[in-house]
Amino acid sequence: MAGVQVANLSRSFGAHKALDDVSIDFADGGFYALLGPSGSGKTTLLRQIAGFDFPDSGRIAIGGESVERVPVEKRRIGMVFQNYALFPNMSVADNVGFGLSVRGQAKAAIESEVLRALDLVQLGKLGARRPHQLSGGQRQRVALARAIVTKPRVLLLDEPLGALDKALRVDMQIELKRIQREIGITTIFVTHDQEEALTMSDRIGILRDGRLVQEGPPEEIYDRPKSEFAATFLGDANIFRGETTGTGIRLPDGTAIAAGAGATLAAGARASCAVRPERIRIGTDSGTSDPNANMLRGQISKRIFAGNSSTYFVDRDGQTLKVIVQNTGVEKLAEGQKVVLHWSPESTVLIAAG
Amino acid sequence: MAGQVATGSRRGLRSALPLLLPAYLWLTVAIFLPLSAMVFFSFMTELPLSGKAWSFTLDNYASFFSQPLYLTLLAASLRLGLEVTLWCVVIGYPAAYVLAKVLRGRSREAIFLLVILPFWSNGLVRIFSWAMVLREGGILDTALNAVLPFKINIDLMYSYPAVIIGLVHSYVPYMVLTCYLTLQAIDDSLIEAGRSLGASRLQMLKRVIIPLSMPGLVAGAALIFVPVVGSFMEPRILGGRTGTFYGTIIEDQFVAVFNWPLGAALSFILLAVVLVILALASPVLRRAA
Fold first, then answer.
1. Where are the domains of chain A?
2. Residues of B (209-238) whose Cβ lies below 8 Å from A
3. What is the mean pLDDT of residues A191-198?
4. What is the ipTM of this complex?
C-alpha cells in the first residue's frame, strides 16, 4: 500500500489541454473520488497514474517513488475498467489469477489466492464460469477481484459502476467500500456521478477543463464550495450574483444576503452566494425569530413531489430558486401561492466571481 | 410459447425464401451440375465425344493407388499448402495486428489498400511480374548487385522458393483480412487490463490476443490451404520443371493429355483428402476458436 502524489501534472493532446498543472496528494489508504463532467480530464489523470500515458510535465509518485516514466506493467497498480475488460477466453478463476500467473507464481499458490479473492467479492463458487455467463454486477466483482489479487499499491477505478442499473449500483457502492476498508488499499475512483462521489469517498477532487477546481472531504466541498462550478456540480445550489459587502452580497435590486462562510473579499467586488435547496425554509409567513436570517419573497411556480421530499421552484425577480422540503405532512403549499423563503447566513457561502 | 416461436421461425423461413432462392439456384446451376457431371466422368473409360465407345470403370481411381507418383505429388502439394499457409500467418498476422491495433485513420486506410491491392490485379499478370523480379538478370538480381560491393547471382526462377513466393503473395491478403477482423473486435481495454496486471507484451500476445484472434487465423488458414493444395498456375509458371505438383498433373489431364476421366478422379481424391484433413483438424480448431 502506498499513497500517491501528483504534482504540477500537465498533458496536452494537440492544442487540447487535457490536464493543466494538476497537483493532488492521495493519502495512503484513502478512498478518493475524481469528479467532473466528461472532458474534464478525470480519466486522463487516472490513466496517467496508471501509466497508460505519460505526462508532458510534472511528477507522479507512488509510495514516494517517482513513476512518471515507468510503464504500466511495472507500476504495480490494480485497475478496474468501466466495461470490466474481463478476458472472454478464460474462466473467472483464470481471469482473477492472470496477474499472479504472469508473475510466474506456482499453480497451487495462485489457486488459493484466487479463492481468497473470489470469497472477498462473494463469488467463491463461480470460479469455473466464463465471463459471458455472469451478470453485470458479478462481472464487476470479478474485475475487482482480479485487480486486487496481485496486492497492488493503488487501486484505480474508471467509472466502474457506470454500466450498472441504479439498485445494483447502490449495492456495489456499499460492497466496494467494504472491500476497500477490509484491505485498506489506496483507492482512486473516477466518476461523473456526484452522489456516488459523496457517499463513497473520504476526499473528492473536482476537475473541470483539465484543472483541479477544488479538493477536500465531501462535507467540506458541499458546505464550502469555492466556486459556482463546485457548488452546482456537487449537489444542487441556488446562486445569487451581486456586489460584495464583505460579509455577503447586495443583489442588483438592493436586497442584502448575508453569508456566514466562504471567501473574504474586499467590499465592492463582484461575487456570488450559494445556498443549498434543503437549507431554505419555505412558508406563507416569515416563521422565524432570527433577525439575521436572510429572507426573500416569491411565488411557487412548480412543485415536484418525490415521495419523501418535495421540490418547490420559486420565482423571484426573474430568478427561479429551488427549495427542497422533507414531506412531514404538515406543510401543504400549492403552485401559484405567494411564499416567504428564509435561511440562516451560516448556510450561505460567499464565492468570488469566477 | 414454444409453438409461437416455431410458427414465427417458419414464417421467417417462408419470407426469406425469395432472398435465398437466387443464391441456391446459382449454386445449383454453377457448381452442383458441373460437379455432378465430373463425378460421372470420373467413372468413365473415355469421354463420350465423337462417338467413342465408353463404359463405367473404377480404373481412374485405381490408378491413383497403383502409381506412386500421384501419392508423392499429393504429399508435395499438401506440404506446399502447409508451407504457404505458415508463411501467410508469419507475414499476415503481424500486418493485421498493426492495421487493427496500431494504425489509425488515414495511414490505416493507405496500408489497407496496399494489402488488398493483389486482389485487384490479374493473377497471371501478378505471376509474370514475379518472373521478371526473380529471374537471373531480373529486377531483384540487378538491384542487389547494384547495392552490394561483391557479385552475387540471384536466380530464383523455376525453383521451389519461387513457387512459395508467388503463392504467398497471392494468398497473404486472405490471412490479413480474416485476422484483421478478429483482431479489431478485441477491445483495447482488454490489452490495457492485461498490462495493468503486469503482463508483458509477449505474454499478452500468447495468452489473450492470439487465443481471441484464433477464429481469424483458422478461417484464413482454411481459405489459403485448400486452394494452394490444388494450385497449378503459380507452380507451372514460377516453378518450371520443379513445379510439378498434384494440381499441375490434374491440369495436364484436362488441357494436355485430354484424359478428363482421370483428371476428374484425381480431383475428387484431392477433395476427399482435403475434407478428411479439415474434419480431423476441426475438433482441435474448434477448441482453439
1. 4-223, 236-352
2. 211-212
3. 89
4. 0.85
- Interchain contact B282–A (C-beta under 8 A): no
Question: What separation in angstroms does the CA of A248 have from each of A191, A257, A318?
Answer: 33, 6, 21
Q: Which residues are registered as beta bridge partners of A351?
A: A272
Q: For the segment B45-101, what is each residue's pLDDT rounded down to a tens digit?
A: 888 777 778 888 999 999 999 999 999 999 999 999 999 999 999 999 999 999 999
User: Was domain A236-352 assigned CATH 3.30.700.30?
Assistant: no
Q: Which three cell numbers stand for residue A25?
A: 496528494
- The CATH topology of domain A4-223 is Rossmann fold (3.40.50)
Residue-level length of chain B: 289
Strand, helix or coil for residue B220: helix
pLDDT in tens, A292-343: 889 999 999 999 988 889 999 999 988 999 999 998 877 678 889 999 999 9
Looking at the complex, report in whole angstroms how far the Cα of residue A113 sits from the nearest Cα belonging to chain B: 15
B196 and A CB contact within 8 Å: yes
CATH of domain B67-288: 1.10.3720.10
Give the nearest chain A residue to B188 (CA atoms).
Answer: A85
CA distance B28 to B22: 10
Q: What is the largest CA-CA distance in chain A?
A: 76
Tell me: the pLDDT tens digits for B148-164?
888 887 788 899 999 99
Q: Is A52 strand, coil or helix? A: coil
Domain boundaries, chain B: 67-288
